Amino acid sequence: MATAVNVSATNNAEIDGLLSGYKWTGTITYSFPDASSDYPNPYYGDGEPTTSGFASAPTQIQAAINYAIGLILGYTNANIQYAGTNGADIMIAQSPAANPTAYAYYPFNYAPGGDIWFGTQYNFSLAMLGNYYFTTALHELGHALGLKHSQEAGGPANVAVPSAHDSSEYTVMSYRSYVGASTTGGYTNEAYGYSQTYMANDILALQTMYGVDYTTQSSNTVYTWNSTTGQQFINGVGQLAPGGGVGGSANRIYETVWDGGGVDTYDLSNYTTNLSINLNPGASSVFSFVQLAYLGDGHYASGNVYNAYLYNGDARSYIDNAIGGSGTDTIIGNAIANTLNGGGGNDTITGGAGNDTITGGAGTDTAVYSGNKASYAIAYDSTTQIFTIVDQRSGSPDGIDTIAGVENFQFGDGTVAGTTLMNNLQPAGAGWVATIAQDFNNDGNDDILWLQPATGAGEIVYLSNGTVISSASFATPGQGWVVIGHGDYNHDGNTDLLWQNTTTLRATEYFLVNGHTVSTQDVGVMSADWHVISSADLNGDGTDDLLWQNQTTGVGLEWFMNNGLAPSYAYVGTMGTNWKVASTNDLNHDGTADLLWQETTTNEGVEWFFTNGLATSWARVGTMGPGWDVAATADFNHDGRVDLLWQNETSGRLVEWFVNDEGLAFDWKDLGTADHNWKVAGLLDLDAVTGPMILMQNAATGVTTEISSTAAGSANSLASSSASPSKVQLPSASAQSSSGDATAGEYIVQRSLTNSFLESDFQLQENDLKHTADLHDFMLL
């Protein structure tokens, strides 16, 4: 026999509003007495056992009580045992003393404590799942175990359940059929419109008193329902059917599901209606309007199936997955990793938090995300046709989702077609840096090498006519290595990579074929002052060479490569320690790579034109002024000449200078102003017909996008201003060293280098250079 004890308040009105203040401890017994003599004498109640008309509870009510106890045993750790027709803690029978309906006594250590009495005025033999008589059994058993009416104050906290949850949708202990209904006019539910289980607040209150059973359906469980009878099936096993399974007006689903663990699925694939499935705790799902319970006065239940609350945030009772039907469904996931399948129809699916797997299925489907598109890293694998979407906001509120069969993606700032996102250039995950844009697979289209410095990971995204066709991981030397050059170092027609260790300064070549490393070559190590700053074909032999620079003296050194080795070298000279090489490209259209130097304070530019590895002439490029850097060089106007792309480091503004055959700028174009976080990451030659696309990466978010280098006065979606700069600072014709304030389009004065290299701006004296650096400063391996 059990003992009644007191229950303390929890300070949560959702729970306290249902606590009477009493519960049982120990093994609880129940029985269905068939004679008055089964009760103690004296009984101290209202004379129920001895009132004329006493009878055992109808078999239908006994079935309802057994069903309700089965539910409670699944929710809680209560130990409840059947005691036949004899005495027990909870004794259930029928007596006219309980007219007109029914009542029960709270747990108490005296004879009537916990007993349930059904009156004789109502025909309780009509009890069937979903009707008033059946649900009354659940209600009275709730009292017998310590639940009070939800609409009444009292209990250890002297509170009622909050009004938003004081109705039959949340508790069988309420007198309100729907939120806001009267408590004195009686229930207004339709005949089979009553709760079929204990509801979410009931379950939480019972678990508070008797503990939580996480073993209930703790394996992988699939829940299904019959669309014509409302019967539930658990892993294919039919449960008690509403109205005995006759369908028609009994075809209602009005229940709460508690599942203790495992991977659990709501499978509604048999439904043709427009489903609304929500897996969040306490939320409800609508399978069919026909199957919604009518609660009276124009009110319908908000759902067919409600999810139980989490107990103290324990994630084991989440429902994990959902499968939609053939209608236009709306599916919402919860905080854990969900697998959501829309099935047929045009579905809308929200994964929410957690790393979700979303499958749209047939129809035109939409995946919904809470943030703006720029907050996500989006990757598409053309082989598997799967999107990976990574929420890069703090805390990653939408997680990392894997998506297939979805046509549209809804973000906070608009809906984007999946065909557009298929062209996303960035791998999934945070911390990726767009490193090189080159044609790695020799298909005539530039691809992108991405590196993740924090992990040392690499990935190549392959493009065709500007569309992502695939991506593949790329094995790098590991953390601490950076790509410092790329070119054809072994003269096989493939793009190779030059890596350098940031600590040891050792350089290593990776020889590639179609984007795959086939061999490596250790190039060597310079002393700590020497860094590889670029690679290009400096001597016109068809093989890319390496250009080193001494970070202390500014001296440049060429290594002329042959099959990945450097059999010879030459000193380049220097513009001084405050000059950096901004580009190695064919600046004067003679077929040989040249050098573009830029001064780090004024950002003045100077070109050195090379023949057979030696600088034979030079030209002053001028400058856009302090804060402007040459971000890239390419043929932007498609006239066969290499042009300059400037970017302002503060404003993000982009300006192109168009260059003639002599390497001189003759015109310019303002592309507009981007947010200062957007930096030029590289150039993409997508079709070899129009000018290259400019690959931009946001330094704050890591997000990338492409903008056109040919659109007049536009910087695509990054532009916030297209106003032209009032002046572009180009050198005047009268003085080589001055920096005149000339308007754009003025020609740059070109001068020839003399054998004596006496120009004061240049330090090219070969004798001095030989004393500045010697062979012992580096190793040729």
Automatic annotation (TrEMBL):
GO cellular component, one term: extracellular matrix
Peptidase metallopeptidase domain location: 20-194
Biological process annotations from GO: proteolysis
Biased composition (Low complexity): 716-726
Key word Cell division present: no
Region (Disordered): 716-741
SMART domains, per database record: ZnMc
Biased composition (Polar residues): 727-741
Required cofactor names: Ca(2+)
Subcellular location, principal: secreted
UniProtKB keywords: Hydrolase, Metal-binding, Metalloprotease, Protease, Repeat, Secreted, Signal, Zinc
Domain of life per record: Bacteria
GO molecular function: calcium ion binding; metalloendopeptidase activity; zinc ion binding
Pfam assignment, any one: Peptidase_M10
Gene3D superfamilies to which the protein is assigned, alphabetical: Collagenase (Catalytic Domain), Integrin alpha, N-terminal, Serralysin-like metalloprotease, C-terminal
Localization terms from the record: Secreted
Family membership noted in the UniProt record: Belongs to the peptidase M10B family.
Database matches in PANTHER family: MAM DOMAIN-CONTAINING PROTEIN (PTHR46580:SF2), SENSOR KINASE-RELATED (PTHR46580)
Name listed for the protein in its UniProt record: Matrixin family metalloprotease
Annotated organism of origin: Bradyrhizobium frederickii
